[in-house]
Write a sequence for this structure.
């Protein structure tokens, strides 16, 4: 039998937190190992309990859920964070993603959506509620293309964007976070850039890009 997914719940509203803990605790395949009432406690409890998944509210005292997510994923990258919040603003969504959250649901999500998110994130996947997924897709669909006359016309708009960040000294991990891409996607794009620019390594690519005015 598979081990249950160990979950830590962080929310400053005791009625919601305790209700969700009771709900999840009643389900097969999920074990609620602890709760936290604010961001500082969430970070401490995550470090102590090493859960598979933290379900994280955003608006909390002492330390908000975004900063708590950043601290948890930096300290324990294997812990998946699912943000469960009332906050619908794009800036909150993308701040959570940049902080390392792998799931984002609104508090109107039903039991099935919450459980699917928790189990998916525990497997290392990223998952978003239907409304959130649509907004992420729309954000990338509206991404600007490279302007005519840009340096390195052989590059796609995405490769041009990544090259500019390489030239600015960003690591692949930083680029992945900043552009909301997987590390593998960034690696593949960087490899394609090297091939198209006929450069041997990152240092040579940076020189070429800076000579063209990128990354300054």
């Amino acid at each position: 039998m598979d081990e249950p997914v160990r979950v830590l719940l962080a929310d400053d509203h005791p009625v919601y937190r305790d209700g969700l803990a009771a709900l999840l605790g009643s389900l097969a395949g999920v074990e609620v190992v602890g709760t936290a009432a604010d961001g500082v406690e969430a970070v401490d409890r995550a470090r102590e309990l090493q859960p598979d998944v933290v379900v994280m509210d955003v608006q909390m005292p002492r330390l908000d859920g975004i900063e708590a997510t950043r601290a948890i994923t930096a300290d324990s990258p294997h812990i998946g964070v699912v943000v469960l919040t009332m906050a619908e603003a794009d800036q909150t969504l993308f701040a959570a993603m940049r902080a390392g959250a792998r799931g984002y649901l609104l508090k109107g999500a039903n039991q099935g959506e919450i459980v699917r998110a928790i189990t998916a994130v525990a497997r290392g996947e990223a998952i978003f509620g239907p409304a959130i997924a649509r907004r992420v897709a729309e954000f990338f669909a509206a991404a600007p293309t490279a302007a005519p006359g840009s340096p390195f016309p052989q590059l796609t708009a995405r490769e041009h964007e990544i090259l500019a960040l390489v030239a600015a000294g960003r690591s692949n991990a930083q680029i992945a976070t900043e552009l909301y891409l997987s590390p593998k996607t960034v690696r593949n794009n960087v490899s394609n850039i090297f091939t198209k620019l006929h450069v041997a390594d990152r240092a040579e690519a940076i020189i070429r890009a800076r000579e063209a005015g990128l990354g300054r």
